[in-house]
């Protein structure tokens, strides 16, 4: 199975990155900087980042990320709006106090107002080095600087028992989410990369465009470098957890990495791929993992897509989906989508419910019409779609022409694991490098509402 986790439309590459304000692409990251606060006489040694097979190796020096200014190496992207950055971090080469290093070396994920300013406001969650040689991490902290050039603060994070440190020689998953509308920054941790636990939250006013990245410091005042790894790196628009370019092994075509960007509640998705159909999918999927009965809804609209006659495909698709395994191309799923239709630009011409009820099995669909049973559900201005999961693995799709009044579309019972991926998916239905673009607005997650999971209630909609 081929699988790409490239987010934000950036293709992973092996690039060496060093020096202050260096600008080059390392995997999904566009920029890097060796922060070197003027208040310290020590000159931080330039850090570096490389990436291979989705694993980022970071080397950094510096007095600390603390007090009124920072010395560290930071690799990042600048994004507007609400976004989430997450990664599994793990120490590779770091020495504690008793071995000539510092137990307070740190590696973690950060949201920073000004990426290249040592005194910038920021919020992050990190795993410190701890003692030993090699020191493999002994605790996790949330840290912040509320005011530029002012003092820093922190809060140690424990397991739910309130006394056990969050640490592992094999690494810990860390995540920070920014809600730009409320200036809220939230940190979480995970011991398996699936189940996330709240760690800390802080309100820090920041400008609209801020930096999301991974930062490392040695907490020493010499040239000693420390090394850590970051894997399973995700940078996606909030409230989504992850994004994946699905690339089914059954097809020889290699899918172009897709992307998702959020700005003021508008999600712009770009995707390629043969189709979401048959025994495996090629598409871009951005999603959030939820347990138990839940729903996802959004208004979807084509922005840049071409039909058959214009060199594209009438069967390009954009929609909302519940998928058992978010990153598995052959996974079971259920969704409702608007196809592209003809024209250039093609602005959508019909709505379908689609599903795969057995992993690796065949797909099926049902075209959805208005209540007259013959008029297609389509609009150049977009259509609202909702998919809900009810107890008993009953999946229900609905549509709306105004975002308020919802109409039943289709239902299917599909056995799935309790935790599933809820998200937005786009495919170009083309085996070339064309990326189609669509928008999703009014994106909402919630409990299933409206229609009920009873056979009697379905009859009301026929």
Textual characterization of the structure:
By secondary structure, this protein is mostly beta strands. The protein has 2 domains: 2-236, Jelly Rolls, CATH 2.60.120; 242-459, Jelly Rolls (Sandwich). The protein is 1% helix and 48% strand. It has 1 helix and 31 strands. It has one helix spanning 455-459, and strands spanning 2-4, 31-36, 48-52, 55-60, 65-66, 69-80, 83-93, 106-112, 122-128, 139-145, 153-157, 172-179, 184-190, 197-203, 209-217, 226-237, 242-247, 259-263, 266-271, 276-277, 280-291, 295-304, 317-323, 333-339, 350-356, 364-368, 383-390, 394-400, 407-413, 419-427, 436-446. The strands form 4 sheets. Strands 1, 17, 20, 21, 23, 24, 25, 26 and 30 form a 9-stranded antiparallel sheet that branches. Strands 2, 5, 6, 8, 9, 10, 11 and 15 form an 8-stranded antiparallel sheet that branches. Strand 10 and strand 11 (153-157) form a beta hairpin. The chain is elongated. It starts with a strand and ends with a helix.
